[in-house]
Specification:
The protein is mostly helical. The protein has one domain (2-67). It is 90% helix and 0% strand. The mean pLDDT is 87.
Length: 70
């Protein structure tokens, strides 16, 4: 019987910890970090796309210079 009571108390503690973890995700600070992460990820993707466009432009310029025997 004492073992069952000890197990039940441990389960209650575990569940309380899980509830606190779930509540943390609703806090403003956590939401801010999630939104900031999304913004930074979008900015990174835009920078990568710009880099690809610039690399293509440079390749085109180099090809034009080669064609003109410069």
């Amino acid at each position: 019987m004492n073992d069952e009571l000890a197990e039940a108390k441990q389960l209650i503690k575990t569940l309380q910890g899980q509830i606190q973890s779930l509540q943390y995700t609703k806090h403003h600070d956590y939401q801010f970090l999630v939104e900031e992460n999304r913004r930074l990820e979008q900015e990174l993707n835009e920078a990568k796309a710009d880099n690809k466009k610039l690399a293509q432009q440079i390749d085109n310029m180099v090809d034009k210079l080669r064609d003109s025997n410069f």
